[in-house]
Amino acid sequence: MYKQQLLNSIEKEMNICRRLYTKIQPGQMNFRPKEGVRSTLEILQYLCVIVNAMPTYWLKKEGTDFNSFYTPIINASKEIPQEEFLTVMEKQWAGIKELFEQVTEDDLLQKEIAYPWGGTAPLGEGIIATSIKWSAAYKLQLFLYIKLSHDINLGTADAWMLTDL
C-alpha cells in the first residue's frame, strides 16, 4: 500500500507539471525573474529528470559514484527542447513505474540508502525527500514563473490539483 501511495504522489505532481506546461504562453520559455536563476525552459528540463534520478541511483547495480552518475543526466537534460517536455515526462513516468517494480513494500521501509550529501534513510523516506519534494518544489517554481511572465488566471488550486484537465 505504501508503494502505491508513493507512486500516486509522484504521478499527481507529474500530472500537474504537465498541465502547467500547457499554460506557458509562446515566447515565455526564456523568462527568468532575474539573472542567475533558472529560466522557465530550464525548470522544465530539470523536471524531466528529477523524479527518476535518485531512485535510479540508489537501485543501480554498479558502484558508480554520485557525480559520475548524476552529471551526465543533468547535462543531457539541458538539451531537451521544450516541444519534447510532455513526451519526456511520460517516459520518466514509465521509468519510475519500472523502478518501483524492482522494490517491495519491505524495501521501502527497510532498505537503507545513503544520500550523496550525507546521511541515510529508508528507501521510501529517501524517495519522499527527493523525487516527491523536488518535483513539488520545482512545480511551484514553474507555477510562479507562469504567473509572473504573463497575465493568466491561475489560482492556488492550479498548483495543487488538476483543475481543468
Characterize the structure shown.
The chain is mainly alpha-helical and 165 residues long. It has one domain (2-160): Up-down Bundle (Four Helix Bundle (Hemerythrin (Met), subunit A)). The protein contains 7 helices and 2 strands. Helix 2 packs antiparallel against helix 3 (66-77). It starts with a helix and ends in a 5-residue tail after the last helix.
List keywords for this structure.
mainly alpha; 2 strands; Four Helix Bundle (Hemerythrin (Met), subunit A); 165 residues; two-stranded antiparallel ribbon
CATH class: Mainly Alpha
CATH topology, which one?
A: Four Helix Bundle (Hemerythrin (Met), subunit A)
Arithmetic mean pLDDT: 93
Rg, please? Answer: 16 Å
> What series of H and E elements makes up the topology?
HHHHHEEHH
**Count of domain modules:** 1
Q: Order of strands across the widest beta sheet?
A: 1-2
CATH-level-2 architecture: Up-down Bundle
Structural class of the secondary structure composition?
Answer: mainly alpha
What is the end-to-end distance? Answer: 27 Å
Number of strands: 2
Question: What would CATH call the homologous superfamily?
Answer: dinb family like domain
Largest sheet: 2 strands, antiparallel
